[in-house]
Amino acid sequence: MSGEPRGGRIVVVGASLAGLRAAETLREKGFAGELTIVGDEALPPYDRPPLSKQVLLGRVRARDVGLPRRRAVDARWRLGTPAAGLDTAGKRVLLAGGEKLPYDRLLIATGTRARPWPNPGEAALDGVLTLRTADDASRLAGLLDAGPRRVLVIGAGFTGSEIASACRERGLEVTVAERGPAPLVGALGGTLGALAAAQQRAHGVDLRCGVTVTSLRGDGGRFAGAELSDGSRVDAEVAVVALGAVRNTEWLAGSGLAAGPRGVACDAGCRAFDMYGIVTDDIFVAGDVARFPHPLFEYQMLSLEHWGNAVAQAEVAAHNMVSAGPDRRPHLAVPAFWSSQFGLNIKSVGVPTFSDQVVIVQGSPQERRLVAVYGYRGRVTAAVSVNRAKWLEHYQSLIESGAPFPPGPGAADGPGPPLSPVPSAVPDPAVLSHGPSVALTGHLPDRRLAVVHHQDG
């Protein structure tokens, strides 16, 4: 670091939600040096959640979802120019055009991109697309405006399910294909996955679970349908590939950082680790691309694809970039996210997949209004509300305090039968066609180790 922490040169790679909020926080904290923001898209930072919701319903144009600026950042913007490499010894970011940007401190906020369809020839068919960028959303909205006879959605995670919901709200026929046993099961486990499946079918979705799409068929260069692993065929004019996200770390190959397919590893203060596990003091990480330890979840490395986490982690990273050691603080926020689909408003705190049991403490799946609380080894680790969000703050306090599971009386719906926890049925990610939006880089909590019994001789 050169001189005073509030001076020098800072480069932010990733003109994203995390990148923008970090830049704003740097200026709020008094950083007066040179600030450069690098982004691979030509557009300034914009909000992604509306892309699978309001944009697909025609309520807002994809180009109108720009992020509001909390303050001027007085930055040099390098948009439409991806980063291509990092020289940590020389402290320079290499851009795709060959330019080298020197830095004193660097923030990596390159996020994720949509996982593409694995067959490039099939992926190139007219009518096959992913949904991640504003251009993707604009193109998909145009295809839906044309009134296709059927839309195929491949993958039933949050993005795939929200796309299917928008299609049904538009009155379009939609087939959803999911390798796992139910929609959303990779994020919420079996109990709420079953509710999501019932809700999709009640809204007219042709939901196919436990199957994979083996190939996409074309007719004159246009998408015409798909073959499924159970031998069935789906005729459709649009296919949306919703197979999860890929973390944008390839540009860091050879940099010496602990970067790979699961993200860039960092400490709780957002400082990147090098490949030997030694923390750096001039490179920071924030947002979807970050992997960080969390004490509430046994210090396993967490990767989160959540809007709120990107903001909170960016603010912590920026604070620590311009603060002396004793003044630095950790990013220990409890993960939280929400989704709106098929008439359900789903909100979550904690990590539902970090669980071995779940119990419904309020409402019921039949009512489509409930609160489910998750536990692991006898303590509360997550809560999910469906059309009943007002109690989540209470359960967040239970998560933060490591309260016993199942939770005691106080938030449940008055007197009734004792709470009956059931297995949370968190699947192995390998059985899903989409990735979970929260990933714990460690053992799965419900994966039991085999015990070998030796007979006494």
Task: List the topology elements.
Elements: E1 9-13, H1 17-28, E2 34-38, E3 76-78, E4 83-87, E5 92-95, E6 100-102, E7 105-108, E8 112-114, H2 120-123, E9 128-130, H3 134-145, E10 151-154, H4 158-169, E11 174-178, H5 185-202, E12 206-209, E13 213-219, E14 222-228, E15 233-235, E16 238-241, E17 245-247, E18 259-260, E19 263-265, E20 271-273, E21 279-285, E22 290-293, E23 301-304, H6 307-321, E24 336-341, E25 344-350, E26 357-364, E27 369-376, E28 379-386, H7 392-400, E29 422-423, E30 438-441
Cofactor: FAD
Biased composition (Pro residues): 404-426
Domain FAD/NAD(P)-binding: 9-314
Which key features would you list for this structure?
single chain; alpha/beta; FAD/NAD(P)-binding domain; Enolase-like, domain 1; 3 domains; 18% helix; disordered C terminus; FAD/NAD-bd_sf; FAD-oxidoreductase/Apoptosis
